[in-house]
Design goal:
Blueprint lengths: L1 H19 L4 H11 L5 H8 L5 H40 L17 H15 L3 E2 L5 E3 H4 L19 E3 L9 E3 L5 H10 L3 E10 L11 E11 L4 H16 L5 E5 L5 E10 L16 E10 L1 H6 L8 E8 H8 L13 H4 L3
Parallel strand pairs: 1-5
Antiparallel strand pairs: 2-4, 3-4, 5-6, 6-10, 7-8, 8-9, 9-10
The structure holds adenosine-5'-[phenylalaninyl-phosphate].
Length: 348
């Protein structure tokens, strides 16, 4: 007993001296082995407490406990310091630059969106409103209101994805719209005349896909209804739009065409911007590029939208925005535009 009590200060002193030399967790482990493990002097004394005479047990027990507490305190404070230091070192040396191996690729607008934005800007500057309509459309808006009743052979001009077709009522049958012309109807029904709008948007046709035909593509519909509107206004509007889009003077020509919702109906071509009409591969040596359908809004369509054809007249047109983007950027295959291939898209 005497012996142990006299050794306590020595043990503590040795532990403090040893603690001062500790540089890392391995040193600390050795410290633990020496002073706090089962083999340590403190543990030995604890084990021998049972042999100490009863009157000395309390004093002895308190001394062993105090020594263990002091040693534990040294150990724990060193452990906390060392662990914090090791963590700091790890954070400083073992970090990863997650951006290092992944060069940032800037996103960009799809070429069709780019052309759409340009077309919208040009028409806006001419006072046209940009309108929108639903992709899921009633049979009535997509066909009947546009002067294409169910029995009309023109229904076959556009292969249709039918969503619901189980009755006679064209307001209860639904299609994926085959053309953006439905937006004319919605706008005229809602706001009447005058009207001046373009409606860019996605359309759907149940057709075989090839280099120039897709089943999902973009069109731009145009409509201008007012008093005393003639085909001359249509010509001026489209030539202005194309000249600004291609940044060179562009002329158009009309050919007779048939669309039930316009009378007269026209096919519109523009003079090839690549060869200026001399003839090249793009225009198949004709000097002209087929561009769109157009015409004067049929009186039946105006009447379907509660507009008096004796007071108002108007022109309408519809062109393929996807095909226009192909022309503008010389893209030979329409399928590339929906391919989502980054290598292709990043060229624009
Ligand atoms: C129409 O869709 C009429 N609604 C256009 C119109 C509007 C005429 C107003 C008169 C007045 P058409 O089916 O021709 O017409 O399509 C118009 C344009 O869409 C075409 O000139 C062409 O550029 C584009 N287009 C047609 N089918 C496809 C297709 N499968 N893939 C890509 N573009 C297409």
């Amino acid at each position: 007993m005497e012996d142990f009590l006299s050794r306590v200060p020595q043990i503590l002193k040795r532990a403090q001296a040893s603690a001062e030399k500790i540089k890392n967790l391995a040193d600390l482990e050795r410290f633990f082995d020496e002073f706090l493990s089962k083999k340590s002097a403190v543990s030995e004394f604890s084990k021998n407490l049972k042999n100490v005479p009863a009157d000395q047990k309390k004093e002895m027990g308190a001394a062993v406990g105090k020594l263990r507490d002091a040693l534990l305190q040294i150990f724990e404070s060193l452990r906390d310091q060392l662990e914090a230091a090791e963590l700091t070192k790890k954070l400083e040396t073992e970090w990863i630059d997650v951006t290092k191996n992944f060069p940032i690729r800037n996103g960009a607008l799809h070429p069709v969106s780019q052309v759409q934005e340009q077309v919208e800007e040009i028409f806006s500057s001419m006072g046209f409103e940009i309108a929108d309509g639903p992709h899921i459309e009633t049979e009535w808006h997509n066909f009947d209101a546009l002067n294409i009743p169910a029995s009309h052979p023109a229904r076959d001009m556009q292969d249709t994805f039918w969503l619901q077709r189980d009755g006679e009522n064209p307001n209860k049958n639904f299609v994926l719209r085959t053309q953006t012309s439905d937006v004319q109807i919605r706008k005229m029904l809602k706001h009447g005349a005058p009207a001046r709008l373009i409606a860019p948007g996605r359309v759907f046709r149940n057709e075989d896909v090839d280099a120039s035909h897709d089943a999902v593509f973009y069109q731009v519909e145009g409509l201008l209804v007012d008093k005393n509107i003639s085909l001359a206004h249509l010509k001026g509007t489209i030539e202005t739009m194309l000249s600004r889009l291609f940044e060179k003077e562009t002329v158009i020509r009309f050919r007779p065409g048939y669309f039930p919702f316009v009378e007269p109906g026209l096919e519109v071509d523009f003079r090839c911007t690549l060869c200026s009409g001399k003839g090249c591969k793009t225009c198949k040596n004709t000097g002209w590029i087929e561009f769109m359908g157009a015409g004067m809004v049929h009186r039946n369509v105006l009447q379907n939208c509660n507009i008096d054809p004796e007071v108002f007249s108007g022109f309408a047109f519809g062109f393929g925005l996807t095909r226009l983007a192909m022309m503008k950027y010389s893209i030979g295959d329409i399928r590339l535009l929906s391919s989502q291939k980054i290598d292709f898209l990043s060229q624009f």
